[in-house]
Amino acid sequence: MNPEPFSQLDRVIHEKGRLAIMSMLAASPELSFTELRDALGMTDGNLTTHIRALQEEGYVSVAKSYQNNRPLTTCSLTAPGRKAFAEYINLLEQIVRQNKPR
Amino acid sequence: MNPNWAEENLQTIRTLMERSALYRRALAPIMLFVGVVGILAATAGVIFQLDLPLVFGVLWLGAAIVAIAGAFFIIRRQALKDKEPIWSPPTRRVAQTLFPPLTAGMILGVIFTLLPTTGFVDFTLLLPFLWALFYGCALHSAGFFMARGVKWFGWVYIVSASVILCVLFVANPSFDISGHWLMGFFFGVLHLAYGAYLYLTEKRKNAA
């Protein structure tokens, strides 16, 4: 097996929690913090840590606003985040193809 | 390392993306709309005593068409608002899972409404249970690609239809109730209750 695609996998995305966040955000223009937390079954602290890591990498943007006088935090993928996610999927597909018996 | 990890990761990504898609955000208004259609059809059926199997079938299959058309309109409006394609792969997947049980229910509905009435079985009493069971199975299947609550909502149909069927037919074979009441409960009250639950919980979640 060629180890090349595996070594190219983005280590920031290649983590269960962060991959789940990126997948949810890739399918939706934006999601609120609570929607992500409930859909993924994460704790507030865990989700905050992962989102911060993705934010520092420039993959996710976080917007804070108010709805009915209550704070609303929404997350969305940035253009580099979308590109990195697409590349990650491509590499996974390459690995799957390599592992398929001929 | 499990050699299939990459494939499993891709499958997980696919499932998560499908859960996050368009129809999920339109679910509450769809449920409320379908519930209102169910209540209106049941009220019309009871008031005008539309109890002949053919009339019963036409009324409820018509209500189903109105409900599906309304759901489509709501999803389309949401798609335009969010600038998303309406017929995306996740939507197609959900449609594919809903299609077989709903088609089977519709075919049975048409057959039973066209059969001549016999003295043994009142099809207008049997159809609500059959439709509720098929609909429950459809929701349960679609729930694999939607919010987790949809799967549970499917179980509500399957369990409530089975329990009511047992209570009415087994415990009290001589019961006398209009099929419209049963349809109003299954397709009116249950949808309204789930729609109200989604609406209230989403509002609270978004405000958090």
Blueprint (SSEs and pairs):
The complex is a heterodimer of chains A (102) and B (208).
Chain A lengths: L3 H5 L7 H11 L4 E2 H8 L3 H13 L3 E8 L2 E8 L1 H21 L3
Chain B lengths: L4 H15 L2 H4 L1 H21 L5 H30 L6 H26 L8 H20 L5 H24 L7 H29 L1
Describe this structure in words.
The complex is a heterodimer of chains A (102) and B (208). Chain A has one domain: Winged helix-like DNA-binding domain superfamily/Winged helix DNA-binding domain (Arc Repressor Mutant, subunit A), CATH 1.10.10. Helix content of chain A is 57%, strand content 18%. Chain A contains 5 helices and 3 strands; from the N terminus they run ααβααββα. Chain A has helices at residues 4-8, 16-26, 33-40, 44-56, 79-99; strands at 31-32, 60-67, 70-77. In chain B, α3 packs antiparallel against α4. With 208 residues, chain B is mainly alpha-helical. Chain B contains 8 helices and no strands. The radius of gyration of chain B is 19 Å and the shape is globular. Chain B has one domain (18-207). The model of chain B has no long low-confidence stretch (mean pLDDT 84). Chain B has helices spanning 5-19, 22-25, 27-47, 53-82, 89-114, 123-142, 148-171, 179-207. Chain B starts with a helix and ends with a helix. Classes of the chains: A alpha+beta (102), B mainly alpha (208). The interface between A and B is medium-sized, with 27 and 24 residues.
